[in-house]
Write a structure and sequence with these properties.
Strands 3-2-1-6-5-4 form a 6-stranded antiparallel sheet, sandwiched between helices. The protein is elongated and about 135 Å long. α13 runs antiparallel to α15. By secondary structure, the protein is of the alpha+beta class. 43% of the residues lie in helices and 23% in strands.
């Protein structure tokens, strides 16, 4: 045969191979449906390699069996019923098992016993006419996914499986493995998506997502119920238009106070609320909303946000009713209590005998305790509902401390309350009325827990950009084990001496709340039996701040 003819046939063969591989690439990229991909691949393998049969099976999760997913054949013989078994147990199919274990192709020839299918394998593939075959592993990222089985009815002498066919089959199997892996990944993503949709559908909390321009991307059923909007009505529209948030003064807050907008520039989830939304859906009304918002990131950049929220309108209304009731009752109690205290003062000035004086003192002390409790409870209610707002201004701290010390000293003659401060102290950024409450609570605490009297020292110092105010006593002290919960509400000392001190465990909780609202912090240093030192910080006022 002339060299030119041989070269021409080789060129034609390579062109056909290239055409086959292009067709395979199109099959791989045309769909992500696993069953359709495998069926198309089986048909292409039969036509491209000129074989009689093709089976594609995938290894199950246990690794003990191959599950046949697709098959194709070149022609049908009416006298032979061909139906491959749905599963091939590796223990019963030695040739398939060899491929799975070695990750290498296996050539099968029925005319050579050492290479032939076993009788059980022929029974399972239900094709007694097979004369030869090729088993090729499907491997992606060094993981075996399954086996491609090619079968030939013709004798080896008439239709040998050449090295060229084996090479082409291996290349096609590699493409097939990639297609299988992509289809499986798509299946998992789709299953996760459906699972997420099911979870969102049954959540009681509303969930919405936005894109980077804060346009609504999705709403779950709870969000539809809360806002009155359907996805068809709002997807693609600005969340500001849809939710219509309002600030404390009732004006739109999208550009100033919107937690959703701020979340685009933050990493951790941010809690918000209650805030006012006026969605304007089917049931147009204002809502009190609480929730959390977190950025959605793609490639390190914020691509949107996810908001989980709930309607707390009824809870807010109940809290307001409770606060109004507490305020009313407290006012009704404070008015007669003031009269009782004033009457006790008059009696104290005119009492002649010691027995009467003792009873008058009991009236005065109990009135004072009740008055303190009412003030604490009112302050607690204000803290819980976040009102009133702080009236922060540059404030000289030393005169304020002297005023609070003088008031406490009048009611605590057994204690010597001292003020230590530098000759010049900067102003602080604070609400004077709230800081009086904080210092008053700490002084009252120091006096109450120093039953034998002694010195109480109020100290002011400067630490960096903060002013530190400390109140130190010589009282019964606190064990370190109580520090973590000491500033929680209704928490009091656990020692026997502490339990003898009257109080309700609200003073330190209120002090912490007011200090933290100023951006400061509060802490304690103490040892049981050696007194306590409570300190808190306030931001100092600097001229450049003005």
């Amino acid at each position: 045969m002339p060299d030119g003819a041989c070269s021409s046939r080789t060129t034609d063969g390579r062109a056909r191979q290239l055409e086959v591989l292009v067709d395979m690439s199109q099959i791989v990229s045309s769909t992500l449906d696993l069953d359709e991909v495998l069926r198309s691949l089986a048909e292409k393998l039969v036509s491209a390699l000129g074989v009689t049969r093709c089976y594609i099976s995938l290894l199950d999760d246990s690794g003990t069996r191959l599950v046949v997913k697709a098959s194709a054949r070149a022609s049908a013989r009416p006298d032979v019923a061909v139906q491959v078994a749905p599963e091939l147990l590796l223990d019963s199919t030695p040739r398939f098992r060899q491929v799975v274990r070695t990750h290498m192709p296996v050539l099968v020839r029925q005319d050579e016993p050492e290479r032939a299918f076993s009788a059980e394998e022929l029974r399972l593939v239900a094709d007694p006419l097979l004369r030869s075959g090729l088993l090729v592993p499907l491997i992606c990222r060094e993981q075996l996914l399954g086996v491609v089985a090619l079968g030939e009815h013709r004798d080896w002498s008439r239709a040998p499986i050449s090295g060229e066919k084996i090479s082409l089959c291996l290349t096609m199997a590699a493409q097939a493995a990639t297609a299988v892996e992509n289809a499986r990944l798509f299946q998992r993503v789709e299953e996760d998506r459906l699972h997420m949709q099911e979870m969102l559908a049954v959540m009681a909390d509303g969930v919405l997502t936005t894109d980077a321009q804060l346009r609504i991307a999705s709403l779950n059923p709870a969000a539809e119920r809360i806002t009155g909007w359907t996805p068809d009505e709002v997807v693609g529209r600005s969340c500001c238009f849809v939710m219509r948030p309002r600030g404390g003064n009732g004006s739109p807050s999208c550009d100033t106070e919107c937690p959703i907008r701020k979340a685009l520039d933050s990493d951790p989830p941010t809690r918000f609320g209650p805030v006012t939304w006026w969605p304007g859906g089917r049931d147009s009304r204002s809502l009190q909303i609480s929730g959390s918002v977190a950025p959605l990131r793609t490639g390190g950049r914020a691509s949107g946000v996810v908001v989980v929220f709930r309607d707390v309108t009824r809870e807010v209304e109940r809290d307001q009713l409770r606060s109004d009731f507490v305020s009313m009752v407290s006012h009704e109690i404070r008015s007669p209590l003031a009269s009782i205290s004033a009457a006790a003062e008059l009696l104290a000035r005119n009492t002649m005998d010691s027995h009467s004086a003792e009873h008058v003192e009991i009236i005065r002390s109990r009135s004072s305790l009740l008055g303190n409790f009412i003030e604490d409870y009112l302050n607690l209610a204000r803290l819980d509902r976040g009102t009133p707002e702080l009236q922060v201004e540059p404030l000289p701290i030393v005169p304020l401390l002297r005023k609070v010390i003088a008031g406490t000293q009048l009611t605590s003659p057994r204690h010597n309350i001292l003020l230590r401060t530098a000759s010049e102290m900067p102003l602080v950024q604070a609400d004077g009325g709230k800081i009086e409450i904080v210092v008053g609570n700490l002084l009252r605490n120091a006096v109450n827990y120093s039953p034998l009297g002694g010195n109480v020292i109020v100290e002011v110092s400067q630490q960096g950009e903060d002013t530190v105010i400390s109140v130190e006593d010589e009282g019964i002290g606190i064990s370190a084990s109580q520090f973590p919960q000491l500033f929680d509400r209704f928490v009091r000392g656990e020692s026997a001496d502490a339990q003898q001190v009257p109080g309700h465990g609200l003073g330190l909780y209120i002090a912490r709340g007011m200090v933290e609202r100023h951006g400061g912090r509060i802490w304690v240093e103490s040892e049981a039996g050696r007194g306590s030192r409570f300190s808190f910080t306030l931001p100092s006022f600097r001229l450049e701040e003005s």
